[in-house]
Amino acid sequence: MEKNKYHILILNGPNLNLLGIREPNKYGNESLQDIIQILLTKINKKNCKLSHFQSNAEYKLIDYLITYKNRIDYIIFNPAAFTHTSIALRDTLLAINIPFIEIHITNIYKREIFRKKSFFSDISNGVISGLGSYGYILALKVIIKRLKISI
């Protein structure tokens, strides 16, 4: 990797590929691709790379993290339903030791009781919940500041 070139991964869990059509009253009308495009316009300088991976399969998220662990500097992670179930993803994040911000489009603390427990919050570098797709932008702004990326 070039000096001062940072790689930020946007990692999304199950059903986020349905954004824009899935329960728009909860998740909004923007598609996941719309959100990624907005983030890409925020990072359009050569000292930072932004990539994205989404899967509905837990093992694919784990395999992706392990495969690219040496190429990623920070992660914006929306684990979706895996928030409440995936000890395997938690263990992977602990093993690869890459800082990440956990985000949720909805406020998980105002939803069903089983959604209030996250297996990631205590190992994350921050949690953004309930601010819609703007949570992705806020997470990116925080990462830019933490990595001291000039854009």
Description:
It is built from five helices and five strands, in the order βααβαβαββα. It has 151 residues and is α/β, with parallel strands linked by helices. It has a single domain (6-146), classed as Rossmann fold (3-Layer(aba) Sandwich). Strand 3 (74-78), helix 4 and strand 4 form a beta-alpha-beta unit. The chain is globular, with a radius of gyration of 15 Å. The model has no long low-confidence stretch (mean pLDDT 91).
- Rg (C-alpha, Å): 15 Å
Total strands: the figure is 5
Let me know the largest β-sheet.
5 strands, parallel
Strand % is: 15-25%
Supply the CATH superfamily name: Dehydroquinase, class II
Order of helices and strands: EHHEHEHEEH
Architecture, CATH level 2? Answer: 3-Layer(aba) Sandwich
* Computed structural class: alpha/beta
What is the global morphology?
globular
Report low-confidence residues grouped into runs of 5 or more.
none
Distance between the termini: 18 Å
CATH topology: Rossmann fold
Strand line-up of the largest beta sheet: 2-1-3-4-5
**Helicity, as a percent range:** 25-40%
Number of helices: 5
| Domain module count | 1
What does the average pLDDT come to?
91
* CATH class placement: Alpha Beta
